[in-house]
Amino acid sequence: ETGVTQSPTHLIKTRGQQVTLRCSSQSGHNTVSWYQQALGQGPQFIFQYYREEENGRGNFPPRFSGLQFPNYSSELNVNALELDDSALYLCASSLNPTDTQYFGPGTRLTVL
Amino acid sequence: AQSVTQPDIHITVSEGASLELRCNYSYGATPYLFWYVQSPGQGLQLLLKYFSGDTLVQGIKGFEAEFKRSQSSFNLRKPSVHWSDAAEYFCAVGEASGTYKYIFGTGTRLKVLA
Fold first, then answer.
1. Does B8 reach chain A within 8 Å, measured CB to CB?
2. Which among B97, B21, B26 is positioned nearest to B65, based on CA atoms?
3. Nearest-CA residue of chain B relative to A100?
């Protein structure tokens, strides 16, 4: 059974640019949640996708957007990057929206 | 608002010693509680979870946690720490208001002395 995978592992962007991060969910899981983990902090919830629809959102601005595809993989897009967007971005998949979340290894984004 | 507090930012123990990591939560209903471990440069690995029933929960790698409703706590324990346990540990509560999401504490970094 394949676990949650994320790509790329690391990414360096400059302020104002746009970035797309990718996540493949665990086999059989139809829900993907995205979290931002700033240095020295716990992860903070960005949003969740369930069966290709956004299923809830945390306190993040609209320049953070996402997609979920028919195979339940997902993308996180961030527009107009700011220095404070530098963080580890974690994707988690679950069997359904209220089931246990299993996390991927994360994508480390650095904004210069 | 729901919250999770991990009072200890850093903990250092000797290999073979016992370990207890503290977690306090604020949540109106019966909480879903989790402990995750994060090694440097890695994602989060689930150690154990509590949904209901027996308040003493066994997890992987020899860890256990006890849910105490009266103290709003869910402390993680291990009787004998191994050098490979050095990592950051996160406690989380599952919040079901609207979207089901996890609220994480700020983590406890564990250092193990040989």
1. no
2. B21
3. B49
Strand order in the sheet with A5-7: A5-7, A19-24, A74-78, A64-68
Task: Report residue A16 as tokens.
Answer: 């104002």
Tell me how far apart the alpha carbons of residues B83 and A85 are, in angstroms, rounded to a whole number.
33
**For residue B33, what are its two tokens?**
């509680």
Q: For residue B108, give how far its alpha carbon lies from the nearest alpha carbon of chain A (Å).
A: 10
Per-residue pLDDT of chain A (112 residues; tens, 9 = 90+): 579 999 999 999 999 999 999 999 999 999 999 999 999 899 999 999 999 999 999 999 999 999 999 999 999 999 999 999 999 999 999 999 888 999 999 999 999 9
Burial B24-44 (b: 16+ CB within 10 A, else e): bbebeeebbbbbbbbeeeebb
Residues B102 and A45 sit within 8 Å (Cβ to Cβ): yes
For residues B107 and A54, is the Cβ–Cβ distance under 8 A?
no
Contact assignment for B42 to A105 by CB distance below 8 Å: yes
pLDDT score recorded for residue B88: 97
Taking only residues 36 to 75 of chain B, the set having a beta carbon closer than 8 angstroms to any beta carbon of chain A reads 36, 41-46, 49
Q: Kindly determine whether residue A48 and residue B106, on different chains, have CB atoms separated by under 8 Å.
A: no
* A33 touches B at CB < 8 Å: yes
